[in-house]
Specification:
This protein is an all-alpha fold. About 75% of the residues lie in helices and about 0% in strands. The chain folds into two domains: about 150 residues, Ferritin, core subunit, four-helix bundle (Ferritin, Up-down Bundle); about 60 residues. The structure holds fe (ii) ion.
Length: about 220
């Protein structure tokens, strides 16, 4: 360890720098995976997801830099070449066959959770070692990326609902045109509600907009 302006004991600085370098490896890996999603995303949600993924990458690059510089400030080397990251990251590799918008959202959401778990553990260690500056730094990372994880979850829900409405039209629209005395529009609307409710359940998010109506289940299943 180098000489440092920090007044923490060397053993504490060594431990904190180690976990900071672990989070740096995760963060650099996640940054590259977000960029892969940004480049390869396809589908109806491309116009919103392409810039959203770029925004995530830009934010994460700033946090990665701050984490690396905190490790150096504590007297350690920052470890962050591509080969070091490949050895040190705890994230799973990004799927290379993914192109559809919803699949990218799901893959990134899963990796955000892994990343956030590591940052929480690092913050706990920094708190135990009474390193308030590192705690503050990691709290900032958590605040921004928990919000980003929520964006992904909300986006996934909205994409699922749009897809469900399209699927409802495909599955029930033709049948609805033959349905008497009900009108086609009324039948299709009911079908959308049923598929919507099932889709919301599938992604595990509760919403009042889903308003289940058991009377609709039998008409559309
Ligand atoms: Fe770009």
């Amino acid at each position: 360890m180098y000489k440092t302006p920090s007044n923490l004991p060397e053993a504490a600085r060594t431990d904190i720098a180690r976990v900071l370098n672990e989070r740096l490896a995760d963060g650099l890996d996640l940054h590259s995976q977000i960029k892969v999603a940004h480049w390869n995303v396809r589908g109806p949600q491309f116009p919103s997801l392409h810039p959203l993924f770029e925004q995530f990458a830009t934010q994460l690059a700033v946090h990665n830099d701050a984490i690396a510089e905190r490790a150096v400030t504590l007297g350690a080397h920052a470890i962050g070449t591509a080969r070091q990251v490949a050895k040190g990251s705890k994230l799973p590799e990004y799927p290379t066959d993914t192109s559809r918008d919803l699949d990218h959202v799901k893959a990134l959401a899963e990796r955000f959770e892994v990343y956030l778990g590591g940052v929480r553990e690092a913050r706990t260690l920094a708190a135990e070692k009474r390193d308030d500056e590192t705690v503050d730094l990691l709290t900032g990372v958590l605040t921004e990326f928990e919000k980003n994880a929520w964006f992904l979850r909300a986006r996934r829900l909205s994409v699922v609902i749009v897809a469900a409405a399209i699927e409802a039209d495909r599955r029930f629209g033709q049948r609805a045109t033959r349905c008497e005395p009900r009108g086609a529009a009324e039948h299709a609307t009911e079908a959308r509600r049923v598929v919507h409710r099932r889709s919301v359940a599938a992604v595990g998010v509760q919403t009042e907009a889903a308003a289940p109506d058991e009377g609709l289940r039998s008409s559309a299943s």
